């Protein structure tokens, strides 16, 4: 995919603010700090369009980035941030749940997990929920440059097993630092958009 134009559109706090132009949407889910902003920036070749997190967990908004006139990346608020109150978490859950279940232009969720660690309970719950509801999802293992190459297969196996990924499914290895996985990820996105 050749990105000619990428722009931040809106931090939406509710459905009334979602774009109306029906371009397909690709959402990014994952805990705070997993590398969502960095992945967006790498995918569109920009250093700083998506903010890299200064205050993890604070923003309860859907951040829309338009890519060419083709699609949106939608950065979901990071989950599993301990300092957010239970009430806030429940609100977060409802807001995101309705987006994921009801948003018609949503074509794919990229669920990010840090390749260094076994997926958390929140990661597991999120993945299981997406599968259960039939939301198309691909797992992206971020920060691949932080693990020695020889160790990577072992880490990917832990992710696959902890998430109980269906047979034939694999996490996609990604490094925003190196650009590793970028072309593969674009190819997968295109498959889900029928481009
Ligand atoms: P977000 O909260 O999910 O948006 O995470 P960020 O994109 O802000 O990344 C959190 C931290 O991890 C930042 O310090 C990034 O520089 C770092 N980071 C993100 N992706 C990578 C990566 O692929 N490699 C390395 N080495 N660091 C990364």
TrEMBL record:
Q: Which InterPro entries match?
A: G_ENGB_dom (IPR030393), GTP-bd (IPR006073), GTP-bd_ribosome_bio_YsxC (IPR019987), P-loop_NTPase (IPR027417)
Keyword Cell wall biogenesis/degradation in record? no
The protein's required cofactors:
Mg(2+)
Q: Which domain of life is it from?
A: Bacteria
User: Keywords of this protein's UniProt record, alphabetized?
Assistant: Cell cycle, Cell division, GTP-binding, Magnesium, Metal-binding, Nucleotide-binding, Septation
Which sequence ranges form a coiled-coil region, renumbered to this chain?
none
Give the family from UniProt: Belongs to the TRAFAC class TrmE-Era-EngA-EngB-Septin-like GTPase superfamily. EngB GTPase family.
User: What name does this protein carry?
Assistant: Probable GTP-binding protein EngB
Higher taxonomy: Bacteria, Bacillati, Bacillota, Bacilli, Bacillales
């Amino acid at each position: 995919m050749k990105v000619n134009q990428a722009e931040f559109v809106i931090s939406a706090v509710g459905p009334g603010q979602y774009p109306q132009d029906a371009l397909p949407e690709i959402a990014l889910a994952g805990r705070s700090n997993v590398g969502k902003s960095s992945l967006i920036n790498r995918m569109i070749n920009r250093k700083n369009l998506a903010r890299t997190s200064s205050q993890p967990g604070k923003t309860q908004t859907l951040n829309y980035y338009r890519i060419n006139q083709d699609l949106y990346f939608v950065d979901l608020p990071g989950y599993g941030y301990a300092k957010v109150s239970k009430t806030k978490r429940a609100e977060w859950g409802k807001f995101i749940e309705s987006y994921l279940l009801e948003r018609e232009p949503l074509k794919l969720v990229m669920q990010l997990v840090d390749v260094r660690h076994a997926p958390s309970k929140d990661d597991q719950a999120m993945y299981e929920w997406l599968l259960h509801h039939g939301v198309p999802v691909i797992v992206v293992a971020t920060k691949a440059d932080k693990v020695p190459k020889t160790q990577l297969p072992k880490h990917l196996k832990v992710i696959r097993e902890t998430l109980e990924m269906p047979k034939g499914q694999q996490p996609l290895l990604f490094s925003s630092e190196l650009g590793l996985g970028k072309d593969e990820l674009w190819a997968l996105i295109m498959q889900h958009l029928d481009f």
